[in-house]
Amino acid sequence: MSLVGKSAPDFTLVDHKRASVSLGGLRGQKVVLAFYPAAFTGVCEKELCSLRDSLSELNDAGAAVLGVSVDGPFSNAAFAAKNNINFSLLSDFGGQVAEAYGVVWKNLANVPGYNVANRSVFIVDGGGAVTYEWIAPSPGVEPDYAAIRAALA
Q1: Domains of the chain with CATH codes
Q2: Helix segments in 6-133, DSSP class H
Q3: Which of 151, 117, 86, 134 is nearest to 11 (CA)?
Q4: pTM summary value
Q5: Nearest CA among 5, 8, 144, 27 for reference residue 68
Q6: Cα 83–Cα 141–Cα 2 angle in degrees, nearest 5
């Protein structure tokens, strides 16, 4: 079920610096939520580095960017350091936020019980409503970055 036009599920998660980040705390600005399956995987690295490289353009459109995965904060910190990621990578290590957004991918790489966030992007407006939603047909598919920028315009 699509979340477009609905209130974005609120959450508070720990980022890669072990600081609490709340979606509700970002009210008044747009937020790009980029769910990714796992740090240190090729497609995730490409996606997050693409967002890093376009961060000033996304910020100019009034948006903050948050990466969300089930990885712990220590793994996300190492991933951020390796790739010079300059936005928060949030640890949804219990998967509750991915569940709330309807983007859980079960048994990644055919590993029983290895449930992750499917690659997906949501844009939340300043009032807290979801205005854009893209969910990958499989975790190996990258989002259309031009469509994200267009949705922010």
Answers
A1: 29-152 (3.40.30.10)
A2: 42-53, 55-60, 73-83, 96-100
A3: 117
A4: 0.93
A5: 8
A6: 110
Strands 63-69 and 30-35: parallel
**Residue in 98, 108, 110, 97 with CA at minimum distance from that of residue 135:** 98
Kindly state the helix (H) or strand (E) to which residue 147 belongs, with its residue range.
helix 145-152
Which among 31, 44, 66, 151 is annotated as catalytic?
44
Q: Which residues contact 36 (CB under 8 A, 6 or more apart)?
A: 44, 47, 48, 67, 68, 69, 117, 119
Whether residue 87 contacts residue 65, with contact meaning beta carbons closer than 8 Å, is answered with yes
Instruction: Answer yes or no: 49 catalytic.
Output: no
Contact yes or no for 114/107 (Cβ under 8 A)? yes
Helix (H) or strand (E) holding 149, with range, is helix 145-152
pLDDT digits (tens, 9 = 90+) for 20-29: 999 999 999 9
